[in-house]
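Input record (Table S2, row 322):
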Amino acid sequence: MKHFMTGLVAAAAITAGGAQAEQSIVIGHALSPQSHYGLGADAFIEKLSELSGGEFTGEQAPAGQLGGERDMIEGLQIGSLDVVITSTGPLGNFVPEVYVLDLPFLFRDYDHARNVLDGDIGKELLAKIDQNNLVGLAWSENGFRHVTNSQRPVRTPEDLDGLKLRTMENKVHMEAFSDLGAAPTPMAFPELFTALQQGVVDGQENPITVISASKFWEVQKYVSLTGHVYSPVAILASPILLDSLSDEQRGWFDEAAKASAAATRAEVNRLEDEGVALLRENGMEVITDIDKAPFAELAEPAYAIYTDEYGTEMVDRIKAVE
Ligand code: EAX
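Output record ((2R,3R)-2,3,4-trihydroxybutanoic acid complex):
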């Protein structure tokens, strides 16, 4: 992890109304500035700046400059970062109730996931985040995850057999992939490209958004549209920053997070439409004829990681959302 964390920088600025502190916030994320996260970070800053009349500005710390997603979440807790746009990959380590969202084959499609996250369940889970020395501002999106690898076309769980597959540092995902017969290797995202390049791992899984933003076609030949799990994104803030705000200022942050999620989802939509062609243009073999049923059946034991502790009620509630 590099050591140029800046956190909240307060700079004196003279405005028409007199002296006023202009606060520049730092938004950390794992991907490139042009990615769906980068667009979401820009939208956050633009909305915050607009609503606050320039009292707040901000900048991105993209591409894991401030560490992996777990490091960045820790940064929020100690106040060295202000806002983080992160997958739920490492979030269950901080807020175990959110593991429910990482269960394989839980969400049917994008509408289902977005309806759950924008509704009561999403609000309840944001409130759980708030109980763990973090602030959950809004749910945003990474997308449905697909398996890529350098070795062979994957069509069935048997094709995963023995494949060294990087997973997120998430025990639900690790369990699911070991149930599916792969050799799961948890790793922070900033290490992944090099690990693929050097053959430390054979494959990984991520949505089309991340595969294209990270140019994984340079190091991966095959992508299988397994859609095995939906990958939510949480827009998190530092409690140290948020506790210092007035209600009005806090409202600006909530609105900025909503604008950020909307911009990110729009980019996910675009890449869902155009991304497969983009992957092919860049030389990937895209395997689309996947029977998901055997994957879902084999990955089922991963549910126990959540349900052993919290029961099946939340799973049933999520499935019941239209
Ligand atoms: O949040 O770690 C991952 O694979 C994530 O999907 C990625 O960093 C984007």
